[in-house]
Amino acid sequence: MTSPFITAVQLSALLDSPAPPVVLDASCVLHPAQFDGDYRRDSGRPLWLDEHIPGSQHVDVPSQFSDSAATLHYTHPSPAAIASELARIGVGAADAVVVYDTTGGLFAARLWYLLRWIGVDARVLDGGLAAWSAAHKPTATGEEPVPPAVPAWTPAATLESWVTKEELIQRSESDARPLVCGLPASSFTGSAPSRYSRRGRIPGSVNVSSRDLFSADGTVKSDESLREAYAAEGVTGAEEVLLYCGGGISASANALTLVELGISAVRIYDGSLEEWSADETLPLALG
User: What are the pLDDT digits (tens) for 190-215?
Assistant: First the structure.
């Protein structure tokens, strides 16, 4: 099975090949909550303008690859809408795509998950721009030429990628499928402020913080370390894995690392705690 990650050296070689991949920078700044309900986000485009992989283009996941008509921040668009936006920015159905960011890797993982859903050949640059620079590869600043749009295309098929609030509400206590929260432990226990209306976790879930699956330099930890982190919470891949976080972003990094381990039966609860906590009839566990 092909890894969902690509190294800087591998990407550099591909960019010099006759059929180079499209490189997308998905940087987005999501600020830590200082108090409950504190939701602040900034575009990552200024970061891309400051420094980026030559020939790459910045994309804004919240505006370009989320449903603008939804009440939640990152609700996934339809497959047709994703394909339409890709075509608009010059990405065809047969194009390979490499995604990275400069803001911790989570938004790169989210875009990867969306592209994987609709069958695009997508990988994530392991370690992002920092790894690219550490490998002594060139960077650029300022604007890049805008790629021409390509003809509109329709995804041939989609993966089973999403789990709904209703499905989780109806989930029985005997359900063997693990429900994994990808937020940091302080958010899982409710000891830290939440960006959303209530603190806590969905009852019955376990915690594998997505940020703890990556080293200090932003590169993914070894497969052995990943497997141990999941196994410690009862996640072995024997059953489908259901994932959530605050708004479907951190959970995408969980999905990315699970696929790295060959565990492809994963689905994300897109609404996550933003939707769950807003419904006062639904329980949240603390501690």
Answer: 999 999 989 999 999 999 999 999 99
Average pLDDT, the chain: 97
Q: Which of 267, 170, 209 is nearest to 201 (CA)?
A: 209
What are the CA-CA distances from residue 119 to residues 16, 83, 158, 239 (Å)? Answer: 24, 10, 6, 23
Report domain 5-134's class.
alpha beta
Q: How far, rounded to the nearest angstrom, does the alpha carbon of residue 136 sit from its chain's CA centroid?
A: 26
Tell me how far apart the alpha carbons of residues 74 and 67 are, in angstroms, rounded to a whole number. 7
Residue keyed to tokens 């995604």: 99
* Cβ(238)–Cβ(232) below 8 Å: no
**pLDDT tens sequence across 53-92:** 999 999 999 999 999 999 999 999 999 999 999 999 999 9
Q: Which of 153, 132, 145, 179 is nearest to 56 (CA)?
A: 145
Contact 225, 264 (CB under 8 A): no
Beta carbons within 10 angstroms of residue 26's beta carbon: 28
Given this model, what pLDDT does residue 1 score?
Answer: 67
The string over 36-72, giving b where at least 16 C-beta atoms fall within 10 Å of a residue's C-beta and e elsewhere, is eeeeeeeebeebbeeebbeebbbbbbbebbbeeeeee
Query: What radius of gyration do the chain's Cα atoms show?
Result: 18
Q: Which one-letter DSSP state was computed for residue 90?
A: T
Range 162-278 has CATH code 3.40.250.10: yes
- Where does CATH 3.40.250.10 sit in the chain? 5-134, 162-278
CA angle, 39 then 184 then 219, to 5°: 105
